[in-house]
Design goal:
Radius of gyration: 23 Å
Distance between the termini: 47 Å
Number of strands: 21
Mean pLDDT: 93
Strand content: 15-25%
Low-confidence stretches: 1-9, 20-28
Number of helices: 22
Helix content: 25-40%
Strand order of the largest sheet: 8-7-6-11-1-12-19-2-20
Largest sheet: 9 strands, mixed
Oligomer: single chain
């Protein structure tokens, strides 16, 4: 099997697809109302990457920067900056306090399942638990498009299931993600009763094993990486495995398994190839109903976690993404220039540098082991209220044992206040907010924490880390060398760029939130949200003659 010609044929089909409509109106230079909305989410992309990697950018990221409307002061406005809440916020124009997806793990009764994991939605490849948007409490952009025109089609593609289902809103036509069993792309019974024939054919034609044996090689020269402040490619704090066991810290990296693909651009290469296939097979943007395609690039997050924000691997990933998006935008070029296609790029969160790297530079940074934090809180509550198994889980909120609280005979507020003080006693935790303080909304708890709090799903104590301190999950996830999920700029500041759709290029320097992406796109295509939002539609500048 030769995979490259297949991809070139798909690109050619997209070029023809979007070129036809423009050819018929070549004499008319008035931009059309968009018929395809493409939402690109680069998992863990910090806002500063567009400028940091600028010397190497010649493709799609450069086009976004030079031809798009770049919001230079955009951020996620909630405190628990993680994948599931970030995607849900972008899709719905709402804070986690409203859409309910507060973290990557949610409290459902006495269980703590992964966000989006739904035992009632079976994977169409394994018949095991699949993913759905059932955890999402509100609708999103895709739903508004379908409410305005029942012909609208909404499709999302990602490696991570939670990314795909959150990005599509409540009722997308398809949310496609990688199945853990065989690394094929699948969906669940929440979206289809059987695997679409075109997807089954694509999986057979472009299987994950087609990438096995490929090498991810560095393309940047020593002078180029030095220009952006990078030094060694084998820093002792990097890698996917426990520190003492890591032997593959430098290029080249070889893809020998499906798991390897997720830590290399190859994982996102598959995602983008399937997204291109979806455009042609489902004829997205072909008629006068506005369709939506959501694409999430998960490998960016995995590379960032394992190798860190100041690594050769991350720089090389963005060199790849720039080139890949350049080819993608070329295929959509006629639609972008005519206004028939609009692209929005953003991120679900940023990331902190690896603590060990910060320590080597003389900064205050570190890790707090989950077990150590649990032990400190348990011991403090034992001493005051009697022995019990007090802490149920830390996700990153502290969830306490409600039965133990009742059995203690003490008030809920007394126990949660004591738990907060115990957590705050650890160096690395800046503050801790018991539930009663968050619910009071009296200004004593910073706004990002209030935006992250949902009364039915949040824990009993919310944690505010010190800058560059992270909760440590290395025991269960050794690849998490760098992490996020805080309210600091390095986690909240993300890119927000619009391209095409009749939008004029330039810089938008006023403060905006990722909650503004969905309502802005809704206004652009002429549909109305169906409910109250936390975000607002930006009055973006338009090209001369663009339809409003």
């Amino acid at each position: 099997m030769n995979r490259i010609p297949t991809m070139l044929r798909t690109l050619g089909a997209i070029l023809l697809f979007f070129g036809c409509g423009v050819a018929a109106r070549a004499a008319d230079d008035v931009p059309e109302r968009p018929r395809l909305v493409v939402v690109l989410v680069v998992d863990q992309m910090r806002a500063d990457y567009l400028e940091r990697y600028a010397p190497f950018l010649r493709g799609g990221l450069a086009r976004l920067r030079d031809e798009g409307l770049v919001c230079t002061n955009a951020r996620q406005l909630h405190a628990i900056t993680s994948t599931a809440p970030g995607h849900a916020t972008l899709a719905t124009g709402s804070h986690p306090a409203r859409h309910g997806v507060i973290s990557n793990t949610l409290k459902v009764g006495d269980r703590f399942p992964r966000a989006g994991s739904d035992p009632n939605a079976k994977s169409l490849t394994t018949n095991k638990t699949g993913y759905s948007s059932n955890d999402l409490l509100v609708d999103g952009l895709g739903d508004w498009l379908k409410a305005a025109d029942a012909r609208a089609r909404v499709v999302t593609v990602a490696t991570k299931g939670r990314s795909a289902v959150m990005l599509g809103g409540k009722r997308p036509d398809l949310a496609l993600y990688v199945d853990d069993a065989d690394a094929s792309f699948t969906t669940s019974t929440a979206y289809a009763t059987e695997m679409p024939a075109w997807l089954r054919e694509w999986n057979a034609r472009v299987p994950a094993r087609a990438w096995f044996g490929r090498e991810w090689r560095a393309r940047l020269t020593a002078d180029q990486v030095e220009r952006i402040g990078l030094t060694r490619d084998d820093a002792p704090w990097e890698g996917r495995r426990p520190f003492a066991e890591e032997t593959e810290r430098s290029f080249p990296h070889v893809a020998n398994s499906a798991d390897d693909l997720e830590f290399m651009p190859f994982g996102d290469e598959r995602v983008l190839a399937l997204a291109r296939e979806a455009i042609t097979r489902l004829e997205l943007g072909a008629d006068d109903a506005t369709d939506m395609l959501g694409i999430s690039f998960s490998a960016a997050d995995m590379v960032g976690h394992a190798y860190g924000t100041w690594s050769h691997e991350l720089a090389e990933y963005y060199v790849w993404l720039d080139e890949a998006l350049g080819e993608f935008f070329t295929a959509l070029d006629e639609g972008l220039r005519s206004g028939r296609v609009v692209v929005a790029l953003s991120a679900d969160h940023g990331v902190s540098p690896i603590p060990e790297q910060m320590l080597a530079d003389g900064k205050d940074a570190g890790r707090i082991r989950i077990g150590r934090l649990k032990q400190a809180v348990d011991r403090a509550l034992d001493d005051r209220f009697g022995a019990a198994d007090w802490v149920v889980d830390i996700l990153p909120d502290i969830y306490l044992n409600s039965a133990a609280i009742r059995a203690s005979g003490s008030s809920y507020d007394a126990v949660t206040e004591a738990a907060a003080r115990a957590a705050k006693s650890l160096h690395g935790i800046d503050d801790a907010f018991p539930r009663s303080r968050v619910l009071a909304k009296d200004g004593s708890v910073p706004a990002p924490f209030v935006a992250s709090f949902h009364p039915d799903r949040s824990g009993d104590v919310m944690l505010s880390m010190r800058p560059h301190w992270i909760l440590d999950y290395l025991d269960s996830a050794p690849y998490v060398k760098a992490n996020h999920s805080t309210q600091y700029d390095y986690d909240q500041r993300v890119p927000l760029v619009f391209l095409g759709g009749g939008i004029a290029s330039g810089r938008w320097n006023a403060a905006v939130g990722t909650i503004d992406l969905a309502p802005t796109l809704a206004r652009l295509v002429g549909v109305a949200p169906t409910r109250e939002l936390d975000g607002r539609a930006l009055d973006v500048p338009r090209r001369a003659g663009a339809q409003r």
